[in-house]
User: Which sequence fits this backbone?
């Protein structure tokens, strides 16, 4: 008897790990093929119908369930024995009772139950020896006894991933979850069982040798067994190939000081931690059967943030959390400034505590996948739509890392309210049809305009958003703002940059440089090698650069704001300053009488600067 397994992945980068496991541990003739949800249904059906097999298996998840239903419906009338597996079939099997060609559903992990089912179909064992299978009998679905199998006999073959450079390499060190989170299917997976640690180590070494780009552990709470975790982390540290990134899902407030020290001793960015915070409302936390010390969690994140990639999660639509409470949760978590903040929406997953108690909280969920919350007793549909708008803003402008300087300015310098700010931004931007399809220059300009009523200093705002915009490009991009730097000023500033940074030349800057300013701050991008430089400069009338003066704009009783605005007695008696003001020019270098006797009192540096500026200002052509 031959079985064909079909995996339909959410993206190419995600391998069908469930299908791989069945194939690797199969005791019968099994083949498999992987698709993505972007593949046309007919393409998948054509592949299936052109193959020769007896049993057809699908791995069903929340992201592919609707597609698989359509395919199964198209295959009605064929002679295939269809077997389903995966979490969406295991816990939400009722809809599949309408498909007469679905004969069996494997509940939970499938390696051993699949082999037992095939052995039964091949008449090798009695059906009483088959466990963890939902089966059709007289147009009804019944279930065989549930049995938890040891992991000793379960094998992995991570070579099936093949494209280690472009795919996530999923690996597991344990199965099950210690916790009972009300919204999560993992809460139903008891008890927690660990794979042999020496085997796990060998598998890690294999993936490191294969230069896997991302190795992601599937363990629900990787740090629940501290000794086991530390042993794996130490192995990872000792075998760093300088390329791979490891991802772990952890419980943030249970992370030990020893673990934090070990992680911080590794290469920057080598470790990525996913921390599900979900809410900071203590009543809500209790209602979803969680315990969380946010004070400890916050400190742990701050201790890790500089060396480790941190991904945090929030869930909107939880019990007892209204819009104002969610705003607080959002702001609490956002201000941790993790590398990514995933703002998700509660989903109804069958057999979870949320699903079993939904009437108590007045929940309405979408009927089709991904079964997101529509409303409950605490938050309306309209309020959830506000949160969805904020989610789009967070993904577009924060999680994308396209505007890191502006994010720091808005939320660390200006200390704006994160939730309210993202909502105002997106309320403005969403008025533009198909804004999500705009080119980067268009969305950046729109982003800038959305902040006019929020940010007090528009010139500073433009200067910062220019930096983010210019820094993102590998070559000089479209300039959508009006130039404010004069040719004279550019000539001098390029000279200053060359004098300050030894790796720059005037030829490089004139060919590859893009210079922008805000008052006396200058920002330069060198597109020859995509490097970034900063400098302060404030030219006095006489050619002296005030930024080089120790008294310029310092917090001192005798500090000087620069002679163009200074009201000191010395400045008011300066002949050069008085002459420039009377002629309404900003530098001796642009004066038709230059050079004159007044400059004889200047330093050689100032005269050199004035000569340079004068030459460039009056040169022919």
Assistant:
């Amino acid at each position: 008897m031959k079985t064909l397994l079909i995996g339909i992945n959410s993206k190419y980068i995600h391998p069908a790990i469930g299908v791989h496991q069945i194939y690797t541990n199969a005791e019968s003739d099994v083949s498999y093929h992987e698709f993505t949800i972007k593949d046309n249904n007919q393409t998948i059906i054509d592949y299936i119908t052109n193959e020769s097999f007896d049993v057809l298996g699908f791995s069903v998840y929340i992201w592919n369930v609707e597609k698989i239903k359509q395919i199964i419906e198209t295959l009605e009338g064929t002679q295939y024995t269809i077997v389903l597996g995966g979490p969406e079939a295991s816990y939400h099997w009722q809809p599949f009772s309408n498909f007469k060609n679905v004969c069996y559903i494997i509940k939970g992990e499938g390696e051993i139950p699949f082999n037992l089912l095939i052995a039964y179909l091949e008449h090798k064992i009695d059906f009483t020896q088959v466990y963890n299978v939902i089966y059709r009998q007289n147009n009804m679905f019944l279930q065989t006894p549930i049995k938890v199998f040891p992991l000793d006999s379960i094998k992995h073959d991570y070579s099936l991933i093949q494209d280690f450079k472009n795919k996530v390499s999923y690996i597991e060190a344990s199965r099950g979850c210690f916790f009972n989170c009300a919204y999560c299917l993992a809460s139903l997976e008891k008890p927690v069982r660990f794979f042999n640690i020496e085997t796990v180590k060998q598998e890690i070494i294999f993936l490191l040798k294969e230069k896997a780009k991302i190795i992601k552990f599937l363990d629900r709470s990787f740090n629940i067994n501290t000794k086991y975790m530390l042993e794996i982390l130490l192995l990872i540290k000792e075998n760093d190939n300088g390329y791979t990134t490891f991802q772990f899902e952890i419980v943030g407030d249970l992370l030990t000081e020893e673990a934090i020290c070990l992680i911080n001793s590794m290469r920057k960015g080598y470790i990525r931690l996913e921390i599900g915070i979900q809410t900071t409302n203590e009543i809500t936390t209790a209602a979803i059967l969680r315990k969380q010390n946010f004070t400890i969690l916050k400190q742990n994140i701050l201790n890790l943030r500089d060396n480790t990639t941190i991904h945090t999660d929030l869930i909107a639509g939880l019990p007892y959390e209204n819009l104002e409470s969610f705003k607080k949760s959002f702001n609490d978590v956002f201000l941790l400034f993790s590398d990514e903040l995933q703002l998700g929406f509660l989903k109804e997953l069958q057999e979870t505590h949320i699903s079993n108690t939904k009437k108590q909280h007045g929940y309405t969920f979408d009927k089709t996948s991904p079964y997101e919350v529509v409303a409950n007793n605490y938050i309306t549909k309209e309020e959830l739509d506000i949160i969805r708008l904020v989610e789009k803003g967070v993904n577009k402008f924060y999680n994308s890392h396209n505007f890191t300087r502006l994010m720091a300015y808005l939320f660390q310098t200006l200390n704006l309210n994160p939730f309210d700010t993202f909502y105002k931004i997106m309320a403005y931007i969403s008025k533009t049809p198909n804004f999500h399809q705009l080119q980067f220059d268009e969305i950046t300009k729109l982003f800038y305009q959305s902040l006019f009523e929020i940010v007090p200093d528009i010139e500073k705002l433009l200067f910062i958003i220019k930096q983010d915009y210019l820094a993102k490009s590998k070559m000089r991009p479209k300039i959508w703002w009006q130039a404010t730097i004069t040719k004279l000023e550019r000539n001098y500033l390029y000279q200053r940059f060359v004098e300050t940074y030894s790796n720059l030349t005037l030829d490089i800057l004139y060919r590859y440089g893009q210079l922008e300013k805000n008052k006396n701050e200058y920002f330069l991008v060198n597109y020859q090698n995509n490097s970034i430089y900063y400098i302060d400069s404030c030219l006095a009338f006489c050619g002296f650069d005030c930024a080089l003066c120790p008294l310029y704009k310092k917090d001192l009783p005798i500090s000087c704001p620069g002679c163009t605005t200074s009201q000191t007695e010395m400045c008011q008696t300066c002949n050069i300053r008085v002459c420039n003001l009377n002629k309404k020019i900003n530098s001796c270098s642009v004066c038709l009488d230059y050079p004159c006797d007044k400059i004889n009192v200047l330093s050689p540096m100032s005269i050199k600067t004035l000569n340079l500026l004068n030459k460039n200002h009056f040169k022919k052509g």
Observations:
- The radius of gyration is 32 Å.
- Residues 536 and 560 are 15 Å apart (CA to CA).
- The chain has a mean pLDDT of 92.
- The chain is about 35% helix and 15% strand.
